[in-house]
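User: Hello, beginner here. Can you help me understand these amino acid letters and fold codes? It all follows right here:
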Amino acid sequence: MKRTRTSKAWMREHINDTYVQLAKKEGWRSRAAFKLMEMDDKDKLLKPGEVVVDLGATPGGWSQVAVKRVGDGGLVFALDLLEMEPIHGVQFIQGDFREDDVLQQLEEKLGERRVGLVMSDMAPNMSGVPLVDQARIMHLAELGLEFSRAHLKPEGAFLVKVFQGTDYETFLGQMRATFKTVAVRKPDASRDRSPELYLLGRTLR
């Protein structure tokens, strides 16, 4: 099947992307690693010894950053529907976060540990229908928030990718009702034309 003009343009842009080239050069699995590093440099989320849960982890860029920054005393648990090549120090579960048995596996691995940071770069398979895609990503964000309410330690943080659009304000309200502070982040490594934003909630109410 021939590639559409749009997908060719995307591929060209992707290959010429500074962050894609830098990720290859420095050994990061995705350009997304730079988004997390920038946000962590600003907000100091990945403290040494921290317990971190990475939702929607594959290919593993965020987990790579997390495991490096929390150090040997920290723990990183990663989860994704897709397979992920192993990363030293990261405990990975393959499965759908929307399913109870997958969530249960993650909870069993956590045991009694309280989490310092839940981070979610989850995105659904895009249908190309904006309303459908928006509803799907907001649903994933809500599931991440629910998980955070149950597993974060009181002073913990939740970093989540969302798209601006339908239900964004409603979700922002849910974040503000859950956390004492909520900040909006748009890292430099996010493409300008992308509707993605990151919300950072800190310290449970």
Notes: The longest strand covers residues 152-163. Helices lie at 5-16, 18-26, 32-43, 61-70, 100-110, 130-151, 168-178.
